[in-house]
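Risk mitigation, structural track. In case the binding assays with zinc ion fail to produce interpretable data, a predicted complex structure has been prepared as a fallback.
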Amino acid sequence: MDIERHIKSIIEQIDPDSSRLEKTPSRVAKVCKDSFSGYGLDISNVVDKFYDSPMDDLIILKNIRFESYCEHHLVPMIGTASVGYVPQGKIVGASKLARIVDCFARRMQLQERMTMEIAHALESVLDVKWVGAYLEAEHFCISRRGVKKQESKFVTRYFCGTLKNDLNLRREFLESVREN
Ligand SMILES: [Zn+2]
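Fallback model:
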């Protein structure tokens, strides 16, 4: 496997005595496969069941833990995502909201783009009036290297749907997802 071969070469360049790490490249390749399994997934296959519902108010799944990798440094960004929406006629199972987050987290990412992708993905498969996504994460490239700001969290939020600019919905959503 190509990734395995390249990892082996990287290890050899870092560690002059890498002979004891014989099995590491294949393990790392497996980790890579899992960590970046979000590529090529079709969101309409991931979210493929819908239920009729008269519910017409805000539905939120909050604190969905995710692990992703910053595409600038390939170091972890670990945090939580909260996804909310206002349906019109149909809803999805709550676990599907978590699956959407995973789809986009398991890639090399920018948190800003990931936030938008999550919201647009839900909007693309379900007829909704409003979608909100709120992410907060520790970026190892900020907390563990460079400026080493260990307590800092990067916060992004994004809204879409026909009611995108509804300030009350934004406020309610943000109040709900911030309280812990
Ligand atoms: Zn970074």
